[in-house]
User: Fold these one by one.
Assistant:
Number 1:
Amino acid sequence: MSMNFEDYQKDAKTWLHQLCDYLGIDDEQKAGRIFKAVLHAIRDRIPSGEAVHLAAQLPVIWKGIYFDGFTLHNAPVRIRDEEQWLEFIRSKDAFAANADFPTLDHTYYAFQDVMNFLRDHISEGQYNQIAQALHSEIEVPA
């Protein structure tokens, strides 16, 4: 089996271009940071087994970004309400949070857009498992 890095890059860029459309922005760097922040928040909020199942559906390069800094944990990060969830997402974009998520409203809409993107790019079963793993007060697109 050959390693075709050009195809991996193409797949990752295709997702990034499509994500820009979902977010309604042209800035690929910003879209990438937003996607990474939301993916990392989801990864740390859902059980480890589910996190691995989600990764299996990501393009190879996004899979590497997704697992960057990942630590297996016995229990998911505890989230008490939607505001805490949105702050948790912002915390995953440490250096650019104020630019990418200037308010919690921006964070909310970015999260919704990323979830809509994921709903359209991963299996329905995986999407539903992620949605169920998030706190019941967190609004997830159906």
Note: Residues 7-133 form a domain with the Globin-like fold (CATH 1.10.490.110).
Number 2:
Amino acid sequence: MKVVRIGFFDSGIGGLTVLHQALRFLPNEDYIFYADTLHVPYGEKSKEEVREYIFNAVDFMANQGIKALVIACNTATSIAVDDLRQKYDFPILGIEPAVKPAVQSCEGKRKKVLVLATNLTLREEKFHNLVRSIDHHDMVESLPLPGLVQFAENFEFREEIVVPYLKEKLSSFDLKQYGTIVLGCTHFPYFENSIKKIFPEEVDIISGSIGTAKNLKGILEAKNQINDGTGDILFFKSGFKVEDKETLSNYKKLLIMLDELQLCHLNFKR
């Protein structure tokens, strides 16, 4: 019997932070995780380039017989999710910055929201439309942090390296003004502890990963497509199956690391 898997796609290892949430809600499903590492980072490339990379990757995954696809990349979601849904007949879920819960949590506190993301995500009309629909009091500000994507892809998580980068990028911000930080790139949750060191203790840090995982479970339940699988994950890098032990070990270490971080965005609170 052919195993029908759920596909997860990202430009790199950031999508593992979303897959980590799916494994919590759907531990018995089987998965394909596709990282387009030949073309990472997406956030610094043109929209046209990125669209081509995305469609090539999703064509590959569709040929694997997936029953649902999660675009576990904020940049890819903002650029292509609507067009992908027109082309394919399986459910396609995207991820977007968790601006709505952030604004709702800050309205009564008279605090601002700071969205941290890639340049391309923050430039996209989809993001600006999202903010306009929710932010009626000019509470939302944003900052691109492309360096965090590069750190993650290089497996560089040491606080003595990451914290100085964050301090430099945030040097012109009054950090006391903010009530919630939105992690608008799936690579950024790896650096949550470093981000905590920069902002006041009472600041909340959230992302959209948990909402995406919940939506995935709800869609599969509604379609009666919940499987009793093994939780097996096949990993691909830009169309090639990952079979070398070192890379597989690194991916598994990252999933374990995410467990150990006890990420704030699991419940939107510290």
Note: The domain at 6-95+209-261 is CATH 3.40.50.1860 (Rossmann fold).
Number 3:
Amino acid sequence: MSILVTGSAGHLGEALMRTLRAQGRPATGVDLVPSPYTDRVGSIADRAFVDRVMAGVHAVVHTATLHKPHVATHSRQDFLDTNVTGTLNLLEAAAAHGVTAFVFTSTTSAYGDALTPADDAPAAWIDENVAPVVKNIYGATKLAAEDLCRLFHRNQRLPCLVLRTSRFFPEPDDSPAKRNAFVDANLKANEFLYRRADVQDIVDAHLLAIERAPQIGFGRYILSATTPFTRDDLAELRAHAPAVVSRRVPGYEAEYARRGWRVFPGIERVYDNTLARQELGWRPTYDFAHVLDRLRADEDPRSPLAQAIGAKGYHAGAYSDGLYPVEN
């Protein structure tokens, strides 16, 4: 089976290409940016280019996108061209060439304002039944692309699975307030409780999605580390998160104290990956308990794959606020 990977110079695209090549599976990486994992350089917004690279392809993993950090540096039209037109071009070419599985990488950012409850409300439990309330052009275009996938399954019978990934990038947080309040490793460890995954687990889910797409047809799935929390914790999590973590992950305090770390005082949302585990057969390894075990052994909690890829950034230049420009 020949697999086309878009966005092969990015975090996930490179991770997929590294994995597929290591497994000896035929794969072609495409991206605007040349890289060791990019076989064909070009734009997915160019229909002729997409038609050429789709020849002989059996499965598509579409990771190429403009991300949230690009909102401040790219126009809304740029987002439409890449995230919507690019996806449409790929879907049309995939349907025309008889592709048997189309896996689209979406984002939990698409939930938008649904992720932040009112100040006096419990934390939000985010699963696939929550209706997104987009708050920027990034979320709007990712949701539009998801619906194109649904449409192509409905009308062209193209098997399409949408994977809404939580954070897995290694770059510092895009919030200056969080960067100033927590060291980066502490911040990321905390996020494994409710909104982060390791790129190795994300890759594993995408490869499972290729296998399951023909049987499932169409589906949307949240990809995030398995949370130790339950719905019963939501009210307390919002204002007293450390108490909930102590109850759900007994003994974490000693390792955090040894490092001078702390849990966030409150957590506003929790991602539930149950459906992905049930329907894709996904078994994520890198959760908060795994992170703690690695930290206790003074080892890097990231997967070897994540360590090999490292940070890439999102822009060619630097800004006064570090990696991220300020959005107007």
Note: The longest helix spans residues 76-96.
Number 4:
Amino acid sequence: MNVNTILNEAITGVKGAQFAGIIGTDGLSVAIAYHPGAAELDFDIELAELELADLASRAAAAADRIGVGYVRDLVLETDALLMLASQIIPGYYGILGVLSETANLGKARFALQAMIERVRVEL
């Protein structure tokens, strides 16, 4: 199974999911998939992916300076989106963005972890 299939299945498996992907702390996207209706939203969902990569990079650098190890998970909850990032391997994170109005943090975290485990098998 390829990574894009895994990402798309993560989106369809979570109510309100708008994007799923793999990002690097170098700011580059490895793979990203969008919900078909995401283009109709009033915010820049493609920019969300880049900003999550930047947040992951900064959090990793801060954790390194503090001496507490790798950043495993990031949760950013806003009025419009719940955005999650979870480490696949050091330097790479799986991400999931869910509309806040329908988001269930527990279900979103579970779905992201399941997606990451499947991605690890593919890598």
Note: The chain has three helices and five strands.
